[in-house]
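A.,

Following up on our hallway conversation. C-alpha cells first:
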C-alpha cells in the first residue's frame, strides 16, 4: 500500500466518487477506510468507529464473516468464472437457486434470474415485466408506475421509475411511460395528512386515479420498496403495500417489490413483502445476498409469472437479457455462504430487537435536539433522522448541517450516512446493544456540535 501521506495527497485527485460533485470530493476529502472487523471500520489514521451504515445497507453479517471469505477464496481456486448464457451453467448457481427458492417460497417466488447488483436487478424486473405481457398477447402494457421518493438504482429504467429529482434531472430525458404517485410519507405530503392510515388510503386513491387516467391496459408494472430506503426511510402504514397489491391484481398490473435493501432480514422480517403479507410478482435483490463481499444480485420470480414464460410455445419467452456476470460462480458461492450464515445467526431477530433500541434512542435524541424534525424507523435496522432549520415550518436544514453532524459523530465513534436532509442509519444486522449505544452517543455528540 502507498503510504498515508501519498493517499491523502491524492485523495479524489484522479477518481470521481458516485453521488457527489467532483469538486466536493476535492474540497471535502472523503475518509479513507482501510480496514474493518466485526461491526467496526477503521480509517487510514487508525481511527475506529462502529459502522452505522453497514457498508451501504449490505454488510449485514459484518466485516469478519469468515465462512463467506473462505468460500470466495475456494471458489476462486475451483472456478473463478464461467458464463451461464445459453448452453453452460455452474454448480454454484444451481445450488443457490434451490436455496433461494426455499428462502423465498413463503413470498411465492420460486425462480431466480441472476444479476450483478441492485440496479441490474431493477432493470431485469422491468424488462421481464414487459416481456410477460407480450408473451400473454398484451403488448400494449408497457408503462411503469412507482412512488415519489422511491429509489431504484441508476440504470436508465431504474432512474425513470426513481422518485427523486436528484437522481433524474441531470440525466433526462428518461424512459417515456413512467409515472409517479405520492409516497405514504407522513411528515411531508401533498395531502397535508399526518395520520399514516388515512395517508395510505389517499395514496392508494392516487394510484387508482393514475391507473384510470393512463388506462390499466397500458401499464406493465408497479414497482415499490416495501420500506422506502434511500429516499429517507419511509415505512408505509401496514395497509399500504397490501392495498397496492390488491389494486395491481384488480387491473392485471404486475407488482415488483424492490427488496434490494429489505431482503434477508433488515426489516426484522426475512423480506419486506413478508413483513406486509404481500406476494409480489418479482422481487429485486442484491446487497446482503453476498454481504457486500462480492457484487451479485438475483431477481426472484413468482410461480405464476414463471409459468407464463415456461409454457410459452410462440418463442416470445426467449430472454434477450443478461449480464456477463449473471450467475458469477464466485458471487453464487458467496451468496450460498451468506444465506447459510444469515439463517444460522437468525439475523432478522437481532435486526428487530436492535432496530427497536435504535429507533427509541433516536426518538429520545429528537426530544433533546431542535434540529431533528422527524425520526423514522420502527421496522428493524433502517432508521432516518430528518433535519430541519425550523420545526414549526419544517424548513429543511441547510445542506452543511447534516454533514457537520456526520463529521462530529464520526469523531465520536460512529459512521452515519448523509442523504439530502436526512441522516440514514442501516448498521450491520449483527450489531450488539453496545454498538447501538455507541451510535446513539456519537449522534448525540454530533447534534451537540451544531
Ligand atoms: C431499493 C434499491 N434498489 C436499487 C438499488 C441499486 O442498487 P445498486 O447500487 O447495487 O445498483 C438500491 C441501492 O441502494 C436500492 O436501495
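Then the amino acids I'd put at each of the 450 positions:
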Amino acid at each position: 500500500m502507498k503510504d498515508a501521506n501519498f493517499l491523502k495527497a491524492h485523495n479524489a485527485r484522479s477518481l470521481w466518487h458516485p453521488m457527489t460533485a467532483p469538486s466536493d470530493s476535492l474540497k471535502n476529502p472523503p475518509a479513507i477506510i482501510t480496514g474493518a472487523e466485526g461491526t467496526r471500520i477503521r480509517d487510514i489514521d487508525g481511527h475506529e468507529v462502529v459502522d452505522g451504515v453497514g457498508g451501504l445497507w449490505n454488510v449485514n453479517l459484518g466485516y469478519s464473516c469468515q465462512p463467506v471469505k473462505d468460500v470466495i477464496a475456494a471458489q476462486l481456486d475451483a472456478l473463478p468464472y464461467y458464463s451461464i448464457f445459453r448452453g453452460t451453467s455452474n454448480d454454484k448457481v444451481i445450488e443457490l437457486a434451490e436455496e433461494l427458492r426455499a428462502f423465498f417460497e413463503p413470498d411465492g417466488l420460486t425462480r431466480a434470474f441472476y444479476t450483478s447488483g441492485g440496479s441490474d436487478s431493477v432493470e431485469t424486473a422491468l424488462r421481464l415485466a414487459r416481456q410477460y405481457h407480450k408473451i400473454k398477447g398484451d403488448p400494449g402494457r408497457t408503462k411503469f408506475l412507482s412512488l415519489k421518493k422511491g429509489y431504484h438504482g441508476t440504470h436508465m429504467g431504474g432512474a425513470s421509475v426513481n422518485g427523486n429529482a436528484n437522481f433524474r434531472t441531470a440525466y433526462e430525458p428518461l424512459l417515456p411511460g413512467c409515472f409517479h404517485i405520492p409516497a405514504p410519507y407522513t411528515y411531508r405530503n401533498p395531502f397535508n395528512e399526518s395520520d399514516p392510515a388515512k395517508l395510505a388510503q389517499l395514496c392508494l386513491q392516487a394510484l387508482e386515479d393514475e391507473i384510470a387516467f393512463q388506462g390499466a391496459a397500458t401499464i406493465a408494472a408497479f414497482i415499490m420498496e416495501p420500506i422506502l430506503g434511500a429516499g429517507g426511510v419511509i415505512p408505509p402504514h401496514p395497509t399500504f403495500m397490501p392495498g397496492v397489491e390488491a389494486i395491481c391484481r384488480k387491473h392485471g398490473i404486475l407488482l415488483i417489490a424492490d427488496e434490494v435493501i429489505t431482503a434477508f432480514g433488515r426489516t426484522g422480517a426475512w423480506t419486506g413483502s413478508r413483513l406486509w403479507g404481500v406476494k409480489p410478482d418479482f422481487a429485486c435483490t442484491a446487497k446482503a445476498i453476498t454481504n457486500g463481499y462480492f457484487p451479485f444480485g438475483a431477481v426472484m420470480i413468482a410461480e405464476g409469472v414463471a409459468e407464463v414464460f415456461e409454457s410459452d410455445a410462440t418463442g416470445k419467452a426467449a430472454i434477450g437479457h443478461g449480464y456477463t456476470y449473471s450467475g458469477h460462480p464466485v458471487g453464487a458461492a458467496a451468496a450460498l455462504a451468506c444465506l447459510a450464515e444469515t439463517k444460522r445467526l437468525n439475523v432478522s431477530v437481532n435486526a428487530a430487537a436492535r432496530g427497536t433500541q435504535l429507533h427509541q434512542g433516536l426518538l429520545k435524541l429528537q426530544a433533546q435536539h431542535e434540529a431533528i424534525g422527524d425520526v423514522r424507523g420502527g421496522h428493524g435496522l433502517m432508521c432516518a433522522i430528518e433535519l430541519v432549520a425550523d420545526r414549526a415550518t419544517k424548513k429543511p436544514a441547510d445542506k452543511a448541517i447534516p454533514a457537520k453532524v456526520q463529521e462530529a459523530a464520526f469523531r465520536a465513534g460512529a459512521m452515519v450516512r448523509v442523504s439530502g436532509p436526512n441522516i440514514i442509519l442501516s448498521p450491520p444486522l449483527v450489531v450488539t446493544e453496545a454498538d447501538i449505544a455507541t451510535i446513539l452517543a456519537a449522534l448525540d455528540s454530533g447534534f451537540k456540535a451544531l
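The domain at 68-344 is CATH 3.40.640.10 (Aspartate Aminotransferase; domain 2). Curious whether your intuition agrees with the design.

B.
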